[in-house]
Design goal:
Organism: Fundulus heteroclitus
Mean pLDDT: 93
Cofactor: Fe cation
Distance between the termini: 18 Å
Number of helices: 7
Number of strands: 15
Radius of gyration: 19 Å
Protein name: Phytanoyl-CoA dioxygenase domain-containing protein 1
Strand order of the largest sheet: 1-12-7-14-4-3-2
Structural class: alpha+beta
Bound molecules: 2-oxoglutaric acid
Shape: globular
CATH topology: Jelly Rolls
GO molecular function, one term: metal ion binding
Number of domains: 1
Order of helices and strands: HEHHHEEHHHEEEEEEEEEEEE
Family: Belongs to the PhyH family. PHYHD1 subfamily.
Amino acid sequence: MVDFMTDQDVRKYKEDGYVVLDGLLSSQECDELRQRMTEIVDQMDVPEHCRTTFSTYHDEQLKSQGSADYFITSGDKIRFFFEKGVFDDKGDFLVPKQRSLNKVGHALHAHEPLYKKVTHSAKVQGIAKKLGLVDPVILQSMYIFKQPGIGGEVTAHQDATFLYTEPLGRVMGMWIALEDATVNNGCLWFIPGSHNSGISRRMVRTPKGTGPLTDFVGREQTYDEEKFVAAPVKKGGVVLIHGEVVHKSAENTSEDSRHVYTFHIMEAFGSRWSPENWLQPTEELPFPPLYTK
Ligand SMILES: O=C(O)CCC(=O)C(=O)O
């Protein structure tokens, strides 16, 4: 069988820190994943912290503590993260709920059979093998909506800021377009070659107690806007994202959505997953190996 990922793709990935591969999924597979997400959203329970009214400073603190908890314990669950301004102060939707979400995360790969199937598909395993990964494990997964009109920007970052390993260079994102991702609806932009300069900051868990649950160490860097190159992708295509490559996406001011399913893998062989990362394997969900049937 001809490799889905060619030698030239591997070279491009190593040189630039990312590569776009067309045709990972068929159009029908994309539609099935989207349809399943519509059902999940139809049935979702709106998280309590979104429903809390904030009339006093104390309530506001509780609400923000609630959302921090909701995030940091989401690694082994399916949870809902919303765009800004989609709830009124009683926690009722101001927009149709199918149009309210920023993302759903972080364990679709474990709990949702269709998503699990795609994550472990022969093509995905073939990509990991082609890149020489010995023991890749799945760290997390997300469905990102980039809603028409309100889908917010994702500022320039490196994924290893959030998913830190020693040594670096062990994490890769697979970002699958379930609809065409274009410069108009918020495709990814990269600084080619930026994966070779380490990382500028890390997000770490803070010691248990009061206050924020995570903090940043290091500096948020500013990047030369001119250096970013757009990476539009056709429905069904995948972008491989090196853990240290600088990337971002613009807000979606168009009338089209830009749904993607994305997950991150780590070469577990010879790597140390930082215990300070927000995301930790749990008893319910240790990081599952990618190479399974
Ligand atoms: O989907 C997006 O707009 C951004 C995703 C991203 O930057 C990431 O998954 O690291």
